[in-house]
Amino acid sequence: MWHDSEDQQVGDEKKDRIFAAGGVPFLCVRPHGRPTPEALRQALVSAVAEAQADIVAASQKAGLAGDEIDFTPFTVQGLPAT
């Protein structure tokens, strides 16, 4: 859950189900307080890197080579490409 109110949580669950049904990871980032642009950037970089690792692992588990998705456009400076 990324929201605190019940109405927002219902919406979050709906989005989660829609994206899961399509096999698309849903990336959520919840900044705490008032993050600086750099802190928000780092949170996004970490979330994208985690999603990338999950996608590659799921592909390999499904018997795919894991290289069907070209992550090159998503490579972030300072993080190794997978």
Structure description:
- This protein is an all-alpha fold and 82 residues long.
- Helices cover 50% and strands 0% of the residues.
- The chain has a domain at 37-62.
- It is flat.
- The two termini are 28 Å apart.
- The mean pLDDT is 76.
Distance between the termini: 28 Å
- Provide a count of the helices: 2
Rounded to the nearest angstrom, the radius of gyration is: 15 Å
Specify the helix fraction band. 40-55%
Mean pLDDT over all positions = 76
Structural features:
82 residues, mainly alpha
Summarize the structure.
The protein has 82 residues and is an all-alpha fold. The protein has helices at residues 6-21, 37-61. It has two helices and no strands.
Fold topology:
Elements: H1 6-21, H2 37-61
